[in-house]
């Protein structure tokens, strides 16, 4: 399996849960969009990376995407634990993927992509960093889903998912 094929497969699988283009996304990008929005609205700045809110994901979509991603990771690594049901996003899977990357010196860093899942709590809320996903009550109880750029992207994802069915 070539690197391009792996990256393309991962991109296709993960696209439904990314608000911004997959390979350009870092938390600072979301923070930058939120800053622009807050300046336009003349309200206090919202910092995604500092836990000022979360993005609520659809359970069915996220579960499907996570399962498909882990199947590809299993194909690449051969790690059987990736196929177990009820994976803890903040558990040992991240370590397995990080160790695999470091041990194999691969260009495709599966842990980098898994970090996205580590930022999602059991209520399917995506936070700006894993800390807020596993430390309930430390982040703001504010959904960012109504902010226009996020709302627009989530609506697009929902339409795409409907057409797949």
Task: Give the key terms.
about 160 residues; two-stranded antiparallel sheet; about 55% helix
What would your notes on this structure say?
The structure is a single chain. Helices cover 54% and strands 2% of the residues. With 165 residues, it is mainly alpha-helical. It has one domain (3-164). α4 runs antiparallel to α5. The chain is globular.
Rg calc: 16 Å
**By helix and strand content, what is the structural category?**
mainly alpha
Write the H/E string, N to C: HHEHHHEHH
Strand runs, count: 2
Assembly state: single chain
Count the domains.
1
Q: How much helix is in the residues?
A: 40-55%
pLDDT < 50 runs, ≥5 residues: 22-27
State the helix count. 7
| Major sheet strand order | 1-2
Q: What is the CA–CA distance across the termini?
A: 28 Å
Mean pLDDT, rounded to whole units? Answer: 82
Note the overall shape: globular
List the helices and strands and how they pair.
Layout: H1 3-14, H2 27-41, E1 55-56, H3 59-77, H4 93-104, H5 110-118, E2 125-126, H6 130-134, H7 148-164
Helix pairs in contact: 1-3, 4-5
Quick overview:
25% of the residues are buried. The chain is 54% helix and 2% strand.
